[in-house]
Amino acid sequence: xxxxxxxxxxxxxxxxxxxxxxxxxxxxxxxxxxxxxxxxxxxxxxxxxxxxxxxxxxxxxxxxxxxxxxxxxxxxxxxxxxxxxxxxxxxxxxxxxxxxxxxxxxxxxxxxxxxxxxxxxxxxxxxxxxxxxxxxxxxxxxxxxxxxxxxxxxxxxxxxxxxxxxxxxxxxxxxxxxxxxxxxxxxxxxxxxxxxxxxxxxxxxxxxxxxxxxxxxxxxxxxxxxxxxxxxxxxxxxxxxxxxxxxxxxxxxxxxxxxxxxxxxxxxxxxxxxxxxxxxxxxxxxxxxxxxxxxxxxxxxxxxxxxxxxxxxxxxxxxxxxxxxxxxxxx
Length: 331
Known about the structure:
This protein is an alpha+beta fold.
């Protein structure tokens, strides 16, 4: 998986799919290189594999959740800008969101802060949903076809690839933005990570986070996955460099090579230089085979690609993600 089932024991954070951050994508807009596309996918409510335990699935954003896209503009592993998204209760099959954009110290506040870009934006629950335009920002919020592709079953069975894509014809809830480059930074190089918080007992608790794909489900040992979700990227080098370097040494890297390779993904912030073509780990496009890339990285190239191709339902225009797949009795 990318970041699907990102809590311990291949479960959702808090056993609630609505709080599960599955993927982050950052790439230059194919329509205009002066604009950047940011996409987070959450709530894989129709994703499932035979090895996974059952969960209560709800097709909605968590009404007590705070969904964040953080941008680091000066490589200090802290947010210098942030988009936050909060949602109403689901009523009569409808849900609406509020989007804020904060900069400076406000970007690091737990409470959603900064300028309100839009309120009452409807969540799209079918194929008729359309993007909205807010000033210079394009925005889409709603159900989309999950773009992640991976032979997950093969990864659990000694990398004997089955040729089966566990995420084909599955859905997620997506938040997609297309913004002018300078809104994020005048520098072409930025770092991005996403996080999901939830209000619990009067406090705001972070329950999931990630920048690079396929980290917590496969790289971290089971006993630290939940702790990892609670932490911040600024502390990642101190907390995980030794651990991850040791893992890489066990898979054929020299100590020096292991430290260097670990720092490709530490801190867990997806870096992109927008003056260069998008290709993971320089950002992440919807078609990048990050699943194969992660195991090649972990094994110093001993594990080859799983042979799967990107999904063929993606759109040529914003929000680029395919329309929802249909499931009788679910959608």
